[in-house]
Specification:
Layout lengths: L13 H5 L16 H4 L24 H25 L8 E5 L18 E4 L4 E5 L2 H5 L4 H18 L2 H11 L2 H30 L3 H22 L1 H5 L2 H14 L17
Parallel strand pairs: 1-3
Antiparallel strand pairs: 2-3
Helix pairs in contact: 3-5, 5-7, 6-7, 7-10, 8-10
C-alpha cells in the first residue's frame, strides 16, 4: 500500500481509504483518464532490465540478516526498473528502504506505520518502510514478502512517472466513487508491476512453481482477512482482480501488461 501524498492534508481521505461498503462489479469501460495514467510511455518500454536476482542466504534469523536480505532485493529492483523508467523518458532515482520492528513507528512526512500493513510507500520522501515483525525475521525469504516489497517499489515507479500525482488529484477532487476506483487501479497496477519483476527474475530464484501458486492463494486469504475490518477490497481490489493483474504481470515481465487505467471496470473491482 501507499500513503497518498495529498490525502495527508488534514486526513482528507481517511474515510475513503479505510472504510466503505462493497461495490458491484460491472463490465462497463474505464472512465476517461489523463494520458499520464492511461497512455503513459511506461507501458511501451518492453521487458524489465534484469533477468537475475541473487537472494542472500538466510541462516541466523536476526533483524540485521533480514534487513540485508530485503536490501539485496531492493538492489535487484533498482537494476530492473532503472532502464525502464529512463526509456519511458523520466529521470530515475532509487527509493530509500527503512526497516521498522513495530506498528505505529513514525514515518517522516507520512504519519505512522499503519496496523495491518507489511510495507508502505511514502511518495513525499520517496521511501519504503518495511515491517520486520518476529515472523518475518524468522522467514524473510517467503515469496509473498519479496512480492510485497516489489509492490511498494511499483508505487515508486508510479511516483517517478507521474502516475501517483495524477491519481492523488482524482482522489482529492473527484467523487467518492471515482476516488475509490482510482485508488484501486493504482494499487492493482502496483500488483502487476511487482509480478512483472518476480516473473522476470523467476528462473534465477530457483524456487518451485508451487511458491507462485501459494502466493496467489495467500493474496486471497490476505484480502479476505483485511477486507472484513478495513475496506481492503474497496481500496485494493478483490481477490479475482488481484490474481488477474498478478498473473498478467508475471507472464509479461513488463509494464506493458499493467495499464489498469485503461481496463474495464470488471477487472478492477
Amino acid at each position: 500500500m501507499r500513503i497518498p501524498r495529498l490525502a495527508l492534508l488534514a486526513g482528507a481521505l481517511a474515510g475513503v481509504l479505510f472504510a466503505g461498503t462493497a461495490h458491484a462489479a460491472t463490465t462497463s469501460a474505464a472512465p476517461s483518464y489523463k494520458p499520464v495514467l492511461a497512455k503513459n510511455p511506461l507501458y511501451k518500454t518492453g521487458k524489465l532490465g534484469v533477468t537475475e536476482c541473487e537472494e542472500p542466504e538466510v541462516r541466523n534469523g536476526t533483524v540485521e540478516e533480514a534487513e540485508q536480505y530485503f536490501q539485496a532485493v531492493m538492489d535487484c529492483l533498482s537494476k530492473a526498473w532503472s532502464p525502464v523508467v529512463k526509456k519511458a523518458g523520466y529521470r530515475f532515482s532509487a527509493p530509500k528502504l527503512t526497516v521498522i520492528t513495530k506498528v505505529g513507528t513514525k514515518i517522516p512526512s507520512c504519519g505512522r506505520f499503519p496496523d495491518g500493513a507489511q510495507a508502505v510507500y511514502c511518495p513525499t520522501t520517496r521511501s519504503i518502510s518495511f515491517l520486520l515483525s518476529a515472523d518475518v525475521v524468522e522467514e524473510p525469504t517467503d515469496l509473498l514478502l519479496m512480492q510485497g516489497l516489489a509492490h511498494e517499489y511499483g508505487h515508486h515507479v508510479q511516483q517517478l512517472t507521474g502516475i501517483i500525482k495524477a491519481t492523488d488529484v482524482i482522489m482529492l477532487k473527484d467523487t467518492e466513487s471515482r476516488a475509490y476506483e482510482a485508488l484501486r487501479r493504482s494499487e492493482l497496477q502496483a500488483q502487476c508491476l511487482s509480478a512483472a519483476f518476480v516473473g522476470r527474475v523467476w528462473d534465477s530464484l530457483r524456487r518451485p512453481d508451487t511458491d507462485w501458486s501459494i502466493l496467489l492463494k495467500g493474496h486471497h486469504n490476505m484480502v479476505a482477512a483485511l477486507g472484513a475490518r478495513s475496506g481492503s477490497e474497496e481500496t485494493h481490489g478483490s481477490h479475482p482482480s488481484n490474481r488477474y493483474w498478478l498473473e498478467r504481470g508475471f507472464k509479461a515481465q513488463s509494464a506493458s501488461a499493467c495499464n489498469t487505467f485503461a481496463a474495464p471496470k470488471n477487472r478492477v473491482h
